[in-house]
Amino acid sequence: MKKVYLVSTFLMIAFASLFIISCDDDEKVWESSGNPTIEMVTAEVHTGQGRTMKIEAIVKDGVGIKSINLLKEDWFLDRTIEFVPDSMVKEYNLSYNFLVPVEAADDATNLVLTVENLGGDVTSTNVDIFMDEDYTNPVLSIASPIDGVTLQPVNPNMVDITCELSDDRALGYFVVKEEKLDIYDSISFVGTTQLSYSYTNSVDVGGDPETYTFHYAVADSAGNVVNRSTVVKVSSDFDKLYLSDVETEEQLTNDLFGVPMLIDKVAPYTFQAKYYSSAPGTEVKFLPQKANFTPHCYGIDPNNESKLINSPETALPIVLPEQGYYVIDLNLETMDYSFEKFTPTDDPYSASIYENEDDMNNYVGQLCVIGAGWTDFQNTTGWGWDGPDANRQMTVDPENPYIYTREEELEGNFQMIFGPYHPWGWWMNPYWRFDNASDPEKTVPQGGDNVNMDVPVKATYIITFDTYLNRCKVVLKN
To answer: Are the beta carbons of 60 and 36 closer than 8 angstroms?
Structure first.
């Protein structure tokens, strides 16, 4: 009997323990770890009647989030997002879209965002709403550093950062950063209603070979953000080199593309340019950056005409004495250069022409610019280029069978390739596309991408294509 009593007692204690545990689970009390935190992604919301606005925030709590509520009674907004307790959500990225009523007043207003945690602690914040419909991005113009610039490895090695910021309503903030250099510079314009700002700074990138990426962000007071970046390389060797046959920086930058002309890198420090001189006495220099003659400009050393010098101020141009094709070799380590005239032996495009309407499968017409963006043909629906409006016949240079030109007035989105005209709109060989759609530097026979870029201001451009060099340029007509 004694053993039975002991067993019975043990069972009673066990059942009592289970009951107590069960009651604890049903009535669990969550200990507080402090109030929840709300980090607004956008401190202000700018919207308008009948438009969809977005509320974005990062909500955190150490115990766990129980619910999130958005309340604005006069807009009939009372939305609660509830979380299952067992899920133990401790961080939540809120992104909530809401349609502003068309009858909403024009005055600035706010809504209340409330977060409750599992311990019953509550945090609320007001979200300011402005009915000004500010959807225009701020403007960021980076004058320096030039994207892709290569600096010689010297100490100190200063880089000037020069930016112009503007907005049609009010600037919000500006940030420039570079992780490798541990640079983080920020400026807040909140509450200033400032419309423009000139930012200048100077940083030392040092003399060790390295590539640095500077990131920029400018926001307006409505939270519209523009991001940009520029790459600065410290090296005694350049990745790219360009031939310049123009004299001013305006001529370097007012083209759509093609000026200056990319040349070939054949070995470390060693480059080769093949170039057509359209007249006797053409003067050329060489630049590793596309938009400026500084900080590097290679030409003939005025104190030693057999050598090159890297000096924007004193470098003399290489003068090509006759009209025709030249090959120019340069070594930027030894500063040696040479050039000689040559005659191409490739067949010109005209050898491919086969205008036989009884054999349309093999029909190859005159060379055309094929695409859209000229002011009298704006069909930019990709492949919708068929027909005479999309095929603009080019004119062959009377002194060079490899060079073709076409003059067009351009505006807005501009797309193009080069290819033969076909009466049925077929794309026949040979054709040329480009190495890059938005920043083309050379054409690619039977491959590549269609040019696809924007022409912000209506203007007349001259399109020049050298089928031998696979080089194209689109420059403003004087």
So the answer is: yes
Burial 344-359 (b: 16+ CB within 10 A, else e): beeebbeeeeeeeeee
Phi, psi of 11 (to 5 degrees): -65, -40
Strand partners, 113: 70, 125
Residue 133 tokens read as 């419909």
Q: Give pTM, 2 decimals.
A: 0.62
Quote the DSSP letter at residue 346.
S
CB neighbourhood size of 323 (10 A): 15
Q: Alpha-carbon distance 209 to 406, whole Å? A: 44
Measuring CA to CA, which residue among 321, 290, 285 is closest to residue 300?
285
The residue-averaged pLDDT of 420-442 equals 91
Q: What share of the chain is helix, strand, coil (3-state, %, to 5)?
A: 10, 50, 40
Q: Residues 271-274: contacts with CB within 8 Å, 24+ apart?
A: 271/241, 271/329, 271/330, 271/332, 272/327, 272/328, 272/329, 272/330, 273/243, 273/326, 273/327, 273/328, 273/330, 274/325, 274/326, 274/327, 274/328, 274/469
Distance CA 232, CA 230 (A): 7
The CA dihedral of 401, 403, 408, 412, to the nearest 10 degrees, is 140
Backbone φ, ψ for residue 39 (5° rounding) = -115, 110
Report the C-alpha gap between 216 and 226 in whole angstroms. Answer: 8
Express each pLDDT in 395-405 by its tens digit. Answer: 999 999 999 99
